[in-house]
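User: quick one, sequence for these C-alpha cells?
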C-alpha cells in the first residue's frame, strides 16, 4: 500500500477514494441514532442565518464528511508536494491525511473542525510561502482574516493567532508592520461583527465572545485510556518519523527545516486549543491532523525496509478498524 502511494500515479486517486470509504465502513454499517451539525458558533449565527442543524439525514451527513475529507486530502497533498516537504512528490500525504482523519468515530461525521481544516490547510500553504516573499505584510493580513473566519465557525481556531508570530520568528527578520498585519486582519472581521452587535443593542453579548480565552487550562483530564489505544501505533510512527527527521535535519534544505518546525508548533497549538471550548468533543483534534499527517508521511517517504513500513501501516489501519467497530 505504502509503496503504491510513493509515486504520483493517477490510479492512486481511485484507490484513495476507495480507501476513504473503507476507513468509514464501521460508521456506515452501524449508523448513529442521531447527528447534529452546527456550522457556526452562536455569536456568528446572529450575523449569518444558515439553518443547517437538521438539514442533513444521517447518511447524507456521513457521506458529505467523507467527500470533504477526500477533497481536503487532495488539496493537502498538493501543498505538501509543491513545497517539497517529502523526499519526492507522492500521494503519501493524502493517504496519511485520510488515515489520520479516521482515527475516531467522531472524526467521521460532519463537524465544525472538519470544515475549519479547509482554512487550516490554506493557512499552512500561506505560512510555507512567507519565507519566499520579499514582503509578507499582505500575506499575514490575509492569514489573520482567515483565522477570524475560522473562529466564526469554531472558536478554538482563534488560538492559531499565536502561529502568526511563531512563523514570523522562524521565517523572517523582525518587521513591526508584519507583526501587526495579521492582528489587523483578524480584527477587521470582528470589527464588523462588533458593529452589527452595536446596531442591534447587544454589545454586551459581543464582549462575552472572548470569555473562553481566560479559561484555566485543565489541571486534570478525565480520559478513558481504552478509547485511545488506537493512538499507540500512531505514536510509534511519530517517534520513528522524529528520529528520521533528526537524522536528516542538517542535510535538509533550510526551508524544509523551518517548515517542519512550523508544523510542529501548529500541531501542538491545535491540540492544546481545546481548553477554549469547555464542552469540547473528540472531533476537536481533527485540527491536529494536517500538521500531524505531514510527519507521518515523512516517515513513510524515507523508510527503507519495505516489509517493516508496510507491516507498520497495516497494523495502524487494522487497529483503527478494530476500535471503530468495537
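Assistant:
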Amino acid at each position: 500500500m505504502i509503496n503504491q502511494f510513493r509515486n504520483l500515479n493517477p490510479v492512486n486517486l481511485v484507490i484513495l477514494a476507495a480507501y476513504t470509504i473503507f476507513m468509514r465502513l464501521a460508521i456506515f454499517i452501524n449508523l448513529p441514532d442521531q447527528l447534529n451539525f452546527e456550522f457556526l458558533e452562536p455569536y456568528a449565527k446572529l450575523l449569518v442565518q444558515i439553518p443547517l442543524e437538521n438539514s442533513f439525514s444521517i447518511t447524507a451527513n456521513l457521506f458529505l464528511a467523507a467527500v470533504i475529507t477526500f477533497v481536503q486530502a487532495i488539496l493537502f497533498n498538493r501543498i505538501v508536494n509543491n513545497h517539497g516537504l517529502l523526499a519526492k512528490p507522492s500521494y503519501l500525504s493524502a493517504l496519511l491525511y485520510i488515515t489520520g482523519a479516521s482515527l475516531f468515530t467522531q472524526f467521521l461525521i460532519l463537524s465544525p473542525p472538519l470544515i475549519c481544516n479547509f482554512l487550516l490547510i490554506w493557512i499552512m500553504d500561506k505560512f510555507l510561502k512567507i519565507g519566499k516573499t520579499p514582503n509578507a505584510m499582505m500575506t499575514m493580513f490575509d492569514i489573520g482574516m482567515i483565522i477570524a473566519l475560522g473562529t466564526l465557525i469554531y472558536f478554538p481556531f482563534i488560538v492559531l493567532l499565536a502561529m502568526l508570530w511563531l512563523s514570523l520568528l522562524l521565517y523572517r527578520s523582525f518587521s513591526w508592520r508584519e507583526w501587526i498585519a495579521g492582528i489587523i486582519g483578524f480584527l477587521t472581521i470582528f470589527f464588523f461583527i462588533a458593529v452589527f452587535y452595536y446596531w442591534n443593542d447587544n454589545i454586551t453579548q459581543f464582549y462575552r465572545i472572548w470569555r473562553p480565552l481566560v479559561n484555566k487550562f485543565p489541571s486534570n483530564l478525565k480520559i478513558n485510556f481504552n478509547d485511545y489505544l488506537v493512538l499507540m501505533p500512531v505514536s510509534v510512527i511519530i517517534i520513528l518519523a522524529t528520529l528520521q527527521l533528526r537524522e536528516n535535519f542538517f542535510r535538509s534544505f533550510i526551508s524544509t527545516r523551518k517548515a517542519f518546525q512550523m508544523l510542529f508548533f501548529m500541531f501542538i497549538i491545535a491540540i492544546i486549543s481545546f481548553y477554549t471550548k469547555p464542552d469540547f468533543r473528540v472531533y476537536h483534534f481533527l485540527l491536529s491532523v494536517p500538521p500531524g499527517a505531514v510527519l507521518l508521511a515523512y516517515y513513510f517517504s524515507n523508510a527503507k525496509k519495505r516489509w517493516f513500513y508496510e507491516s507498520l501501516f497495516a497494523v495502524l489501519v487494522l487497529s483503527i478498524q478494530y476500535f471503530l467497530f468495537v
